[in-house]
Write a structure and sequence with these properties.
The structure holds 2 protein chains of 2 kinds. By secondary structure, chain A is an all-alpha fold. In chain A, 57% of the residues lie in helices and 0% in strands. The chains are: A mainly alpha, B alpha/beta.
């Protein structure tokens, strides 16, 4: 025993470090004193330790342009020689919204689990026409969710880490899409029905094929499609046939409202920081409205919604379609209201008649 | 027993809402906003902070300026909603805040300033406001004449 101790001591003395192991490099700890700002002590506030609270000192410096092309966390010391990742969005104007950190916290706070939070037991058998209509709408909502996930994730890897608040918020938005898909698939498959017909997918394609930058995708994904989905969810909540559906629609509505808040705030920021952005958006919407109108020409979603609003097929053509019209009127009013709030001028004469027919107020 | 509408009634509801942790999960959560409640000519200001309704006070209509949005209905419609909640333990399908907003000609949620970001808080925190009013099922309510 004493012999072993003596031998270890000899080895330690050779390595210059107590407990050093032969063959393992001796630690130098030369990294330990390096930090751009040491001694930071952010304390949890009344509402906990939130992401936005960490923006103190250099950690809160969010530059207009982020030249770093690596995954270096904002505020850390950059390592020389790291191969660039090739982020294409390195300007704050291309993605920023001041509320992103708060929206991230909100998404985490307001999470819900379709498996256990939804009172599935309240769903009772419905007449077949109604069940088919609900399943059809669920099918299309799943398809929208797929579009959300793909669109957001296809831009995520292009956003630089100087703006991590936005990246983190969008990670939650992507997860919200996954939950939307899960929730509506479950509704379609839990009451004797099944998935229906795939939607036309024209708007999804337009969103996914946006090549002009994230702001363009935001315009289509959150402002146009998001506003429509929110309006539809509001009407579905009103027409819910049980507590489970009401829960699903209302909670998805909350999620979509968060996305819309980011979308509007980002577009407002982009418009304020890029001279011709409002004009660009005007052009984008000119195109987007047409694609959206083309998708709305498809009778499937419209008729399914009318059946839900009327309580069955019998009165879908009259009462149901009247509510559908009311829904579209609300959508157009909200959508044009958002454009006006952003300062993006819209000329009704240039918009598809299929949409302007629902505009009742100038 | 508290009379609707009154500061005492909103405080009693806030007492139930603030102390029930089940309202903090399943899509509920922290809420940061000021909401106005207009019942006929009377106006109440509710301040939500974190998980709680932190403050209730009756204000003049001119003091609606700082609120993010306000909910407005005549007393008889508020009464119908509160009675429905009391009868069912929570708002039934016809009396959720969203349904009332859609069903009413003039809507339910309004804004003084037209700030879209603040108006949208009604939707972002919708479950919290619904939980708040649903909490009124657990207090005994009388109604002002």
């Amino acid at each position: 025993m004493a012999k072993a101790k003596a031998s270890q001591a000899a080895a330690d003395s050779k390595q210059g470090q107590p407990g050093a192991i032969e063959g393992i490099p001796q630690p130098k700890f030369d990294w330990a004193g390096r930090s751009n700002q040491w001694g930071t002590r952010v304390k949890p506030g009344k509402h906990g330790l939130r992401l936005g609270d960490l923006n103190v000192g250099i950690y809160g410096e969010i530059p207009e342009h982020w030249p770093d092309q690596t995954r270096n966390p904002r505020g850390a010391i950059a390592r020389k020689g790291v191969p660039p990742v090739g982020y294409s969005i390195r300007d704050k104007a291309g993605l920023w919204a001041d509320s992103a950190a708060d929206l991230y916290e909100e998404a985490i706070q307001r999470r819900w689990a379709p498996a256990t939070d939804v009172p599935w037991e309240t769903i009772k058998p419905l007449n077949e026409g109604l069940e088919r209509a609900i399943c059809q709408v669920c099918t299309e909502l799943c398809q929208y969710a797929n579009g959300d996930i793909e669109a957001i994730s296809s831009w995520q890897h292009q956003m630089s880490y100087g703006y991590h608040e936005v990246k983190q918020f969008l990670a939650t938005a992507s997860f919200d899409g996954a939950r939307q898909y899960e929730a509506f698939r479950k509704r379609a498959l839990c009451n004797g029905g099944g998935l229906g017909l795939e939607g036309p997918g024209k708007v999804n394609r337009m969103i996914l094929e946006s090549r002009g930058g994230w702001s363009e995708a935001v315009t289509y994904l959150f402002l146009l499609r998001g506003t429509f989905t929110m309006t539809m969810l509001r009407y579905l909540e009103r027409a819910a046939y049980n507590d489970a559906e009401r829960f699903l629609y209302r909670h998805t509505l909350q999620d979509k409202a968060r996305h819309l808040t980011y979308g509007l705030e980002h577009l407002q920021y982009a418009i304020a920081h890029q001279e011709d952005m409002a004009l660009i958006m005007q052009q984008l919407m000119f195109i987007g409205d047409r694609v959206f109108a083309r998708e709305m020409r498809d009778n499937v979603l419209r008729e399914a919604l009318a059946v839900i609003f009327a309580g069955g097929i019998e009165k879908a053509g009259s009462e149901g379609m009247a509510v559908y019209r009311e829904m579209m009127t609300d959508f157009m009013e909200t959508y044009l209201g958002h454009c006006s709030w952003l300062g993006v001028k819209r000329n009704l004469e240039m918009m598809p008649q299929l949409l302007t027919q629902y505009v009742t107020r100038a | 027993m508290a009379e609707f509408p009154s500061v005492a009634w909103f405080e009693a509801v806030a007492g139930v809402f603030n102390s029930d942790e089940s309202y903090r999960g399943a899509g509920g959560g922290q809420c940061h906003c000021q909401a106005g409640i207009k019942v006929g000519k009377r106006v109440f200001l509710l301040v939500f902070e974190g998980f709680e309704c932190a403050e209730v006070r009756e204000v003049d209509v001119s003091e609606l300026e700082p609120v993010d949005f306000y909910l407005e209905m005549p007393l008889k419609d508020w009464k119908a909603m509160v009675q429905d909640i009391a009868a069912n333990g929570a708002a039934s399908l016809h009396y959720t805040l969203n349904t009332l907003d859609l069903n009413r000609e003039a809507g339910l949620s309004h804004s003084v300033h037209g700030d879209q970001y603040r108006e949208d808080l009604f939707f972002r925190y919708n479950q919290t406001f619904q939980f708040f009013f649903d909490a009124s099922a657990r207090i005994k309510t009388t109604f002002a004449r």
